[in-house]
Amino acid sequence: MNPRNSVFIATSLDGYIADRQGGIDWLHSIPNPEQLDMGYSKFMDQTDALVMGRNTFETVCGFDMDWPYQKPVFVLSNSLEKIPEKFLGKAQLIKGKTNEILQEIHNLGYQKLYIDGGTTIQGFLKEDLIDEMIITIIPILLGGGIPLFSEFPKKLQFECVDSKIYLDAVVQNHFVRKR
Ligand SMILES: NC(=O)c1ccc[n+]([C@@H]2O[C@H](COP(=O)([O-])OP(=O)(O)OC[C@H]3O[C@@H](n4cnc5c(N)ncnc54)[C@H](OP(=O)(O)O)[C@@H]3O)[C@@H](O)[C@H]2O)c1
Fold it and tell me: Which atom of ligand 1 is nearest to the CA of 80?
């Protein structure tokens, strides 16, 4: 099975994944009475494991709900020394160069990876290690916050293989890296 690194994320119209305070409540600014998941469970079914940055991990830890993942979660961090006790067995720490991290995860048998967190995604993009991105655009301008993208050294071309409108308001584009 070929390895694949995928992004499934929501952004504001101006490309932020969190507001200036790190908040993500605006993700729910469009009424979604039937809790449409916009392809999330299908995407998760095709995912072997998640790789997320420490900030995203801490956001998830702060949710007032049960642990939301059924797949292994690898948390990237140079500062965390251990996973908080409450989340032991749910997530594990990993650090090193991106290629070494990937090798370690692949050796454990996980090939299809969900890469999450702005800085984390940017790190993978810097090394051209993202194969596909499913980006759901919430029609709101935040004016500032944590961006999905940052500068990186070379142009990376993607092909848009699908585009959907959900809830008459939200556009979801599926981009695949053209290699
Ligand atoms: N809109 C959405 O769908 C969505 C999705 C996910 C997250 N978010 C939001 O985005 C925010 C988090 O994004 P973020 O850009 O702040 O960062 P992030 O990628 O979640 O976390 C960044 C941290 O991850 C660690 N890290 C990243 N790459 C590493 C590497 N190669 N080696 C070691 N450690 C590495 C570092 O932790 P240390 O500082 O500990 O070394 C870094 O400070 C949160 O507010 C979250 O709620 C939104």
Answer: 40
